[in-house]
Design goal:
Helix content is about 45%, strand content about 15%. The chain is an alpha/beta fold and about 350 residues long. Strand 7, helix 10 and strand 8 form a beta-alpha-beta unit. Helix 1 crosses helix 8, helix 5 crosses helix 6 and helix 7 packs antiparallel against helix 8.
């Protein structure tokens, strides 16, 4: 009997130890997966895109040019592949400049699947390598930061593109996953609240499968992997503490859901209905918030059966029709009208 009582007395201590060990292990693993992931190299991403039908060799053979733009905040360059509009012939005006931003661990080649119809319709196009990815070195800021630092790289690229192709052309941003979160956080820089559209650097943003914040993305990943709430809650606080300790900002700082309320720029949210990696409700939530507060023109397209970052591959016609219909509605009135049939 005495041994049983002794064991019962130690049981809470043992359970507390198991709980604490679980929190520590899951916190470290979560921090590494989110903030120290393995980045894929350019050759891997190029080969993967070819093998999975996102683009073909003819697309790669177009006369792409590589540019490196200095990003002052990192004291390092950001690289981008760009293709001047084929419509740059005499008396033919390009509809605009489209800048494409990839997701975490990938490279510019991940955005090629979105670019074909823009090229066909005569847009100037650029595909960016985010810091630490592809040809872009890390620089003085540790990445990835889920758009918290990367938005300033986008600002540098936007400035370069406007200088290269003309200040009068509308600039749009197209982002996927972390690229979408990044361009949404750029919105208050490119089109500040209270400013006139004639003073904006960007005319519209298309965000495919963006998260609402780094904090909520961590919570979603923990829930999706079956981590119970009584462990997930302290894990979030621990990862937040680690991030503040090692990188100087917190999980709540990379926050697209906050940024989209601070800019009147037109935003089209796109999300796959089968996305569990970045849950579909995140784009729905941001769209609902903007509409409720009348922050700016806001549209949402949900793509049935599409998992994370697969919407354009699952339903190409829906994706491009939605995008060009949106751009026709929100771009400056003097911009050339964009066709949707040729886009798909």
């Amino acid at each position: 009997m005495e041994q049983v009582l002794h064991a019962l007395l130690w049981l809470p201590v043992c359970l507390a130890g198991i709980w604490l060990l679980s929190v520590i292990i899951i916190s470290i693993r979560s921090y590494i997966l989110m903030f120290r992931p393995k980045f894929q190299d350019l050759e891997y991403c190029r080969t993967w895109g070819l093998e999975h039908g996102e683009f073909d060799q003819n697309f790669l053979s177009l006369p792409w040019e590589l540019v490196t733009v200095q990003a002052a905040h990192r004291n390092a360059p950001v690289a981008a592949l760009y293709l001047p509009a084929r419509s740059g012939e005499k008396n033919v005006k390009a509809p605009g400049i489209a800048i494409f931003v990839h997701g975490i661990t990938w490279t510019r080649y991940g955005m090629f699947k979105y670019m074909g119809p823009f090229i066909e319709q005569g847009w100037h196009v650029l595909a960016v390598d985010l810091p630490g990815h592809g040809d872009s070195p890390v620089g003085s800021k540790t990445v990835p930061s889920y758009g918290y630092h990367e938005k300033y790289d986008i600002d540098a690229v936007v400035d370069w593109a406007r200088s290269r192709f003309g200040q009068g052309l509308p600039v749009i941003l197209v982002g996927e996953s972390m690229g979408a979160g990044t361009v949404l956080q750029y919105a208050p820089l490119g089109a500040p609240g209270g400013s006139s559209p004639k003073d904006w650097k960007v005319a519209a943003i298309i965000a495919d499968c963006s998260y609402t914040s780094a904090a909520e993305e961590l919570e979603a990943r923990l829930a999706d992997t079956g981590v119970p709430r009584f462990i997930a809650a302290p894990v979030r606080h621990t990862v937040d503490w680690m991030l503040r300790m090692f990188r100087g900002y917190g999980l709540s700082d990379p926050s697209p859901k906050t940024a989209v309320l601070q800019s009147p720029v037109p935003i089209l949210f796109i999300h796959g209905e089968a996305d569990t990696y970045v849950p579909t409700w995140m784009s729905q939530d941001m769209a609902d918030r903007r509409r409720a507060l009348k922050a700016g023109p806001t549209e949402l397209v949900l793509v049935p059966e599409a998992s994370h970052a697969k919407s354009v591959m699952v339903n190409r016609e829906l994706w491009f029709s939605a995008v060009f219909d949106f751009l026709n509605r929100v771009l400056p009135q003097n911009a050339p009208e964009l066709g949707t049939k040729d886009a798909v």
